[in-house]
Design goal:
By secondary structure, the protein is of the alpha/beta class. It is about 40% helix and about 20% strand. Helix 1 runs parallel beside helix 11. It is elongated, with a radius of gyration of 22 Å.
């Protein structure tokens, strides 16, 4: 239980609903900032404006998937007001407070380090990333179906990267009957690709493996699908970039070639916000319980 733990939610999207409902059910004291257009009544949950007074009495601050931009602005779909998290706001938090976000820009990381506030980036956790890879893979397949006129079954598909998302996506595509080529950097990933039933290759040889593809999915957040690579692709190819912005595909050259290329980060929150919210809710509640227990042990 989280009795007595004071949690403030600052902005966010539909995923946050699952999180604050779960924390409230665990008896945390929950306050919402930036949710004035959310119509559903939630018993026992307060709505307030952002203030230093509110933050001084906060044990945990929950931010959206991307905590802030480089100017401190917070993404909030349930309000028309602009929300900005300033250095003064961070400084107002108690030193024991914890900030939760999916991933933090340098702006937020630097301020938390400067004021010695614990910052937990949930998307860096293996468990969260693996769970999130499921709706990501489903969303990627959905996009592929929407933007092609062929079946996944029998299609020649390249997946770049065998991280947590790449692994789940490759396995999903194999299950649908695709012929999957897997671009990797490490020998152990090459071996895993063979074991899975893919056709692995090293990324240095990428240009040699794209001449007949129907689809390419990239999960690597650095420029990997260059103009030189795209020049070897057939015009029918569809490129879907699942990496965080700016992605790893030369979108300018793809457009010049007439090849359809899309940047599609954040799919869990788009295609399955309830599931994605439950993943975050479980992780945040477990971490808050750990923090609460450790404080009790320390006393």
């Amino acid at each position: 239980m989280l009795t007595g733990v004071r949690v403030v939610f600052l902005g966010g999207d539909a995923r946050q609903i699952e999180v604050f409902q779960k924390l409230s059910e665990l008896d945390a004291s929950v306050t919402l900032v930036g949710f004035d257009q959310l119509s559903n009544p939630y018993h026992g949950i307060q709505r307030k404006s952002l203030s230093l007074e509110l933050l001084r009495d906060t044990d945990a601050l929950v931010l959206p998937a991307v905590g802030t931009d480089e100017d401190g602005r917070v993404h909030a779909i349930f309000t028309s007001e602009e929300i900005t998290l300033t250095e003064e706001d961070i400084a107002a938090l108690p030193k024991h407070a914890v900030i939760f976000t999916g991933m933090a820009k340098p702006y937020l990381s630097k301020l938390c380090a400067k004021h010695r506030i614990t910052l937990l980036e949930l998307f860096e956790r293996d468990d969260v990333a693996i769970y999130n890879s499921i709706p990501t893979a489903e969303g990627a397949v959905m996009m592929a179906i929407q933007h092609t006129d062929i079946t996944i079954h029998g299609a020649e598909i390249v997946v770049l990267g065998l991280g947590r998302t790449g692994f789940t996506l490759a396995r999903t595509l194999l299950g649908l009957g695709a012929r999957v080529k897997l671009g990797v950097r490490r020998p152990e990933h090459f071996a895993r690709g063979v074991e899975m039933g893919c056709e692995p290759f090293y990324l240095a040889n990428l240009a040699q493996h794209v001449s007949h593809i129907d689809l390419l999915f990239n999960t690597i957040p650095t420029m990997i699908v260059t103009a030189q690579v795209i020049s070897q692709m057939p015009n029918r190819a569809v490129l879907i970039d699942l990496a965080s912005k700016p992605g790893g595909i030369d979108f300018r050259f793809a457009e010049k070639r007439g090849i359809k290329a899309m940047l599609a980060p954040g799919l869990p929150g788009i295609v399955a916000p309830k599931t994605a919210g439950r993943i975050l809710a479980n992780s945040i509640s477990e971490l808050l319980n750990e923090v609460t227990r450790s404080r009790g042990d320390g006393q």
